[in-house]
Amino acid sequence: MASTTDTQHQEHAGEDGPPEPAARRRGPGRIVAQVVSVFGELLITAGLVLGLFVVYSLWWTNVVADRAADEQADKVRDDWAQDRVGPDGPGALDTRAGIGFLHVPAMGNGDILVEKGTSMKILNDGVAGYYTDPVKATLPTSGKKGNFSLAAHRDGHGAKFHKIDKIEEGDPIVFETKDTWYVYKTYAVLRETSKFNVKVLDAVPRESGKKKPGRYITLTTCTPVYTSKYRYVVWGELVRTEKVDGDRTPPAELR
User: Fold this and answer.
1) Is 12 a catalytic residue?
2) What is the pLDDT of residues 35-52, one digit of tens each?
C-alpha cells in the first residue's frame, strides 16, 4: 500500500509531469493548422492579384485605349474639316493619323478609327488596323479590286470587335473616308479558324465562297472571347459608294 507521500507524488506527476501521449499528438496538429492557414492566406492574396490583373486587362486598358483612339479620331476629323493635306501633297493618302472610320451597326460601338498596320502597338490604341503583312490589304480608296482586310482586339485595349459575333449575313459594314462612304454587305462568316490561316486575307477570299476578283472587306479578331487561340472572320462585298455631302449625312444603313 502506497503512503500518502507516494500518492501525492503520483498525483503531481500526473499534473506537472511529462505530457500524456494524446497531448503529444496535438503538436503536429497545430503545425498543420498553421500551414493550412498560411496557404489559405496565399490563395486569397493570389486571388486578389489575379482579380486586379483582370480588372486591368478588361477595364483599364479599355479606358486608356478609348482615350487614345478618341484623341486620334478627333485629329483626323479636324484635318478633314480644315481640308489639310498629307506630307506628300494634295491627293496623297496620309496614313499617319488614320485613313477613315469603320461603322458596323450590328456591333453597336459607333465609329472605329482605321489605321495602317496590325501590330500590337497599333491595335492597343483602340483602333482597327489594315493588314500590311503577311497579305497586303487593298484599300477601297485605290479603286482597285481586292480585299480590304482589317483586325482589331476583341477584349481589352478598346475591344472594338468584341461583338463581332453579332454580325450576320446581310448586315451592312460601312467605311467612311473624307470624301466617300463605302457600303459593304456581309455575305459570309467563319466563326473559327486557325490563327495561322492567312488565306482568309487573300485578294479573292475563296474560303468565303468567292471565286472571282471583287471589292471585298474582311474583319478578323481572336476567338473565343478572352483568348487568342483561333480567329473569327467576317466577309463583306462592296455594293455601292456615296459621296460625302457638306453635312456628312450618313448613308441609309447608318440611320
Assistant:
1) no
2) 766 666 666 665 655 555
